[in-house]
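seq as requested:
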Amino acid sequence: MAKDTKELLKKVRKIEIKTRGLSNHLFSGEYHSAFKGRGMAFSEVREYQLGDEIRTIDWNVTARFNHPYVKVFDEERELTFMLLIDVSGSENFGTQNQQKQDIATELCAVLAFSAIQNNDKVGVLFFSDKVEKFIPPKKGRSHILMIIRELIAFTPENKGTNVGEALKFFTRAIKKKCTAFIISDFISPGFEDELKIANKKHDIIALRLYDKHEEEFPNLGLVPVKDEETDELIWINTADEAVRKAFKAEALKRNGQLRETFSRSGVDFTSIGTHESYVKPLMTLFKKREGKR
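struct tokens:
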């Protein structure tokens, strides 16, 4: 076996051990509460009992037997999950403990393992400023391990970001209602229209990955900054307070606009920084969804 392949399998195994443990101990109950039972399949009718909801009464059967009967529903256990993952150049950025790409890989693995524990299908869409790769939804551990392998080793053709393009493709490709996580820094041309269309048909959750230093420059004097998506190198004087303030104001404005976009589109949204563990933001998001149901 080639050294590269061995290294890759080692990485896959490491991520599997960590994320499977998390999805077993932390997320399995939360996942079920946050996502299950949305679709209901008709199961049978039975006689009305005290405490049954009036709206479940089957009026046709009730009229026939002259006695109230209610419809009983089962949760449709099986869901389809899609992971839409930004693999653009800016995902390689990270000045803290990890790069955005590292968090994206672990997040996807945790969500995917939580999904297969609940017998759900998982599919993946890698995007830059175009759709780079589409893996149709399937079940099973070997499918998840293949996804993790792709997440670690995938090399995109393009470096830019276009969330709208990814959403357009996703809406066309997945016909049956599904739950989709978009994992990106969302530094992209506007995508609100595509988001609204996709969220009407599906249930979309946005996970924004960010690095502290994309939002606030430390005072380091004159520093070279390279744009990962255009390869352009510019020198910035971080010792100048006006420069630091303008940079922070621009970041705050961008984040505010992004929050409004998700809010207007009815999309659940949380931010995860490269300086922190993703466990808490994800748990908070799941709890919030549970509370809304």
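Residues 40-75 form one domain.
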